Amino acid sequence: MNYQDQHNNEMGTTMNRSFPEQLTDHVTVFGNDHFRHYLVGEYQEVLIECGVTSSVRDFAEQLSDSARQGPEKLLAMHAHFDHVCGIPELKRHFPDAKVLASPAAARVLDNPKVVAGFFDQDRKLPGRFETGLSEAPAGRSPQPNRIPVDRTVSGGDRIALKGGGDLELIAAPGHSPCGLAAWFERDRVLFISDALGFPISEDTIFPVFFHTYRPYMETIEKLAKYPAEVLAFPHKRIWQGKDVKAVFSRALSAAQNIREEIVSGVAKGRKLSDLKQMLFDRFYREHLRTYTPENIRLCVDLLVRRSIEDRCTDNAHPS
């Protein structure tokens, strides 16, 4: 059985939400369980999470069926392929929509080499997520060299919404240096992007401190202070009500435990290749199989590298 067949067998029964879904009075969820798009505001004018090419096709069809207007603003939460490769397709459907991203994300999206790598991953999404962008099918957006950003935004900025209320943007480093989260106080919804990790299953979170460990932990602690009643993840789960606080605790523990396991293994002389294989075997399952094995091996490599860097910081500044 090849990778794509195995993926289709494992993932075929997981699409258990109905899209679009009215999450709160002023937030609607589109896309699919693996890549979500959130329309926010009384007039639904801001789209949070730009997803991948195939999820935008789902979004456009769902939006048309629901007879809603298209978004006026597209908020890219951070510059990783599964959060920005949908932008060209979104612009094809909604050419007047403005792309918003952090200054650091804008610089990444202006790099042709990085953008080419992003769309290589976008093309490799298996099964129903396969995009085929390299051939630029009729009526589809060709692969761009850059993804232009119309307006840069930063933590502390607010996006005013037409029907009242606003989105408070929050700097969320750790997973990536360009990360943002967003707080919609009117409906008590916190859009966290990947700041808390990737929910593989109901009870397992894959830590994703790919840039730096300490800021990742600090970001989770900062976000936990918001009185959220809904945690809007871009992938798989949406947590609500009494489950919200537990998710923050779970995300902190997951990151701390992995970091300590890696540091301890290195201290005991364990081979890095063995540590990486152990982590890959543990986490590459269920919803993480949306991504290619090569992608997740790179992610595991970053977790090991950042854990070792953090240990070196401890050694350089003993208490």
Automatic annotation (TrEMBL):
Residue ranges constituting the Metallo-beta-lactamase domain according to the UniProt record: 24-235
InterPro entries per UniProt: Metallo-B-lactamas, NDM-1-like, RibonucZ/Hydroxyglut_hydro
Stored SUPFAM superfamilies: Metallo-hydrolase/oxidoreductase (SSF56281)
Protein name: Metallo-beta-lactamase domain-containing protein
